[in-house]
């Protein structure tokens, strides 16, 4: 059996697909990750990272694992080895140097749709450059000007998925009212950001809903999360939860289903699209009245 890899698939997704196939081979062999680690004299965490696509996979890793799993079909081994080679290529984001959330960027770059809940700020893909710069400066006060500029440039590059004429990212954003009321930069900057948010909401592949304060408690009260879905059915959906020092990626079907149900409740409680645009307009008026 062959496992073709399209030339336009980025390295992060290649690693995920390869890891999924290696996990399948291990499970067919009836072995645990701990047993495989003992056979190869490596840590169990290395096997787990290889299978979940969070670590680069060398051709030697693939060869050793295929040996443990007694894969006799050379076509399968050769195909997996090629996938390993391709997975070590660099994505566009590597040109910017060390990016802490590069795994997420790789997933977002290849995703077909993204559902995101933002409780504190405007989602990154819908931010103006000025808002992004002020936000990053405030969130990372010890960062250098060069690092802030790099992060802003990466964010701008990510936003090209929204403007892609052929395969734009399908974005659904539920935003808490606090993100609209929190003054990032100054009030004039917020007016420009909210006007941009309304403008983006008119794109056919972008849906924006606001969750007002008076909706009370809701399923997203615990914080930000995003659900990424991919065009290839073989790529499982991913729930992304951003952390201060590390990020969490959930791929188990039960976890994805749970967060998907939570998101449906959020969408149901939030204002609809037209109500949202009117609500944002009222917030813009509030900012305008203060700046006069």
SSE layout and pairing:
Blueprint: H1 11-29, H2 33-40, H3 44-52, H4 59-68, H5 74-87, H6 102-110, E1 113-118, H7 129-139, H8 145-158, H9 160-163, E2 170-176, H10 177-181, H11 187-201, E3 206-211, E4 225-229, E5 238-241, E6 248-250, H12 253-269, H13 273-291
Parallel strand pairs: 1-2, 2-3
Antiparallel strand pairs: 1-4, 4-5, 5-6
Helix pairs in contact: 1-3, 1-5, 2-3, 4-5, 7-8, 11-13
Descriptive keywords:
53% helix, elongated, 13 helices, alpha/beta, Helix-turn-helix transcriptional regulator, Cro/C1-type_HTH, disordered N terminus, 292 residues, Lambda_DNA-bd_dom_sf, DUF5753
Could you provide a short overview of the structure?
This is Helix-turn-helix transcriptional regulator. The protein is α/β, with parallel strands linked by helices. Helix content is 53%, strand content 11%.
Description of the molecule:
InterPro entries: Cro/C1-type_HTH (IPR001387), DUF5753 (IPR043917), Lambda_DNA-bd_dom_sf (IPR010982). This is Helix-turn-helix transcriptional regulator. It comes from Streptomyces gobitricini. The chain is built from 13 helices and six strands. The N terminus is likely disordered.
Number of helices: 13
With strands numbered from the N-terminus, the spatial order across the biggest sheet is 3-2-1-4-5-6
Which spans have pLDDT < 50 for at least 5 consecutive residues?
Answer: 1-8
Give a quick account of the main beta sheet: strands, pairing sense, barrel closure: 6 strands, mixed
Order of helices and strands: HHHHHHEHHHEHHEEEEHH
Structural class, by secondary structure, is alpha/beta
User: What is the helical fraction, as a range of percent?
Assistant: 40-55%
End-to-end CA span? 69 Å
Q: Assign an overall shape.
A: elongated
Organism: Streptomyces gobitricini
Domain HTH cro/C1-type: 22-77
InterPro entries: Cro/C1-type_HTH, DUF5753, Lambda_DNA-bd_dom_sf
Protein name: Helix-turn-helix transcriptional regulator
């Amino acid at each position: 059996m062959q496992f073709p890899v399209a030339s336009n698939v980025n390295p992060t997704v290649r690693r995920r697909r390869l890891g999924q196939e290696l996990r399948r081979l291990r499970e067919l062999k009836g072995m645990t990750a701990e047993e495989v680690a003992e056979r190869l004299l490596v840590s169990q965490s290395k096997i787990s990272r290889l299978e979940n696509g969070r670590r680069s996979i060398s051709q030697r890793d693939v060869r050793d694992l295929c040996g443990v799993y007694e894969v006799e079909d050379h076509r399968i081994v050769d195909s997996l080895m090629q996938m390993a080679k391709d997975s070590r290529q660099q994505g566009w984001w590597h040109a910017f140097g060390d990016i802490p959330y590069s795994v997420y960027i790789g997933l977002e770059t290849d995703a077909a749709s993204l559902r995101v809940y933002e409780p504190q700020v405007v989602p990154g893909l819908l931010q103006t450059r000025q808002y992004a710069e002020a936000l990053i400066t405030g969130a990372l006060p010890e960062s250098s000007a060069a690092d802030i500029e790099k992060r802003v440039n990466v964010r701008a590059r990510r936003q090209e998925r929204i403007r892609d004429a052929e395969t734009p990212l399908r974005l659904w954003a539920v935003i808490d009212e606090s993100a609209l009321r929190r003054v990032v930069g100054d009030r004039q900057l917020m007016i420009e950001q909210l006007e941009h948010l309304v403008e983006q909401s008119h794109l056919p592949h972008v849906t924006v809903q606001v969750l007002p304060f008076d909706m009370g408690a809701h399923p997203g009260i615990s914080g930000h999360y995003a659900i990424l879905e991919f065009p290839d059915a073989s790529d499982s959906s991913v729930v992304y939860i951003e952390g201060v020092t590390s990020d969490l990626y959930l791929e188990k079907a039960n976890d994805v289903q749970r967060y998907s149900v939570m998101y449906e409740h959020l969408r149901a409680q939030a204002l609809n699209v037209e109500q949202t645009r009117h609500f944002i307009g009222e917030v813009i008026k509030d900012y305008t009245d203060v700046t006069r």
